[in-house]
Write a structure and sequence with these properties.
Layout (H helix, E strand, L loop, with lengths): L9 H13 L4 H8 L3 H15 L11 H36 L3
Helix pairs in contact: 1-3, 2-3
Amino acid sequence: MSFVPAPHPPEFRRRAVGLARLGEQPVAAIAKDLRISESCLRNWMAQDAADNGSGSGSSARLTSDEKRELAELRKEKRRLEIENEILNRAATYFARENVLPK
């Protein structure tokens, strides 16, 4: 599996969010100056609020660490489901081998 880097480095995101939080310019103007969409900047701001436990509605949004953990848990769950299916098929196979007359 290949890793695809984020299009904007974390430091760029942090600085963009910091500029927006200063409130000296509208979010739309900052986004335009940075050549990103306003919705992108607003998403970064919401994620920053969730990660830092600040802002309105931050408790409803997963932190970046929680998102990473959730992705890892989903991957592990899928692996365990596959292993379980293999074991069930093996148990069925061996059960038939031991029951049928020879």
